[in-house]
Amino acid sequence: MKTLLAVAHSMTGGTWQMATAAVEAAAAAAGDDCTVRLLRAAEAGPDDVLAADGYLFATPENLASMSGMLKDFFDRCYYPALDRIEGRPYATLVCAGSDGSGAARQIERIATGWRLKPAAAPLIVCTHAQTPEAITAPKHIGAADLQRCAELGAALAAGLAMGVF
Ligand SMILES: Cc1cc2nc3c(=O)[nH]c(=O)nc-3n(C[C@H](O)[C@H](O)[C@H](O)COP(=O)(O)O)c2cc1C
Question: Is the pTM of this model over 0.90?
Answer without folding.
Answer: yes
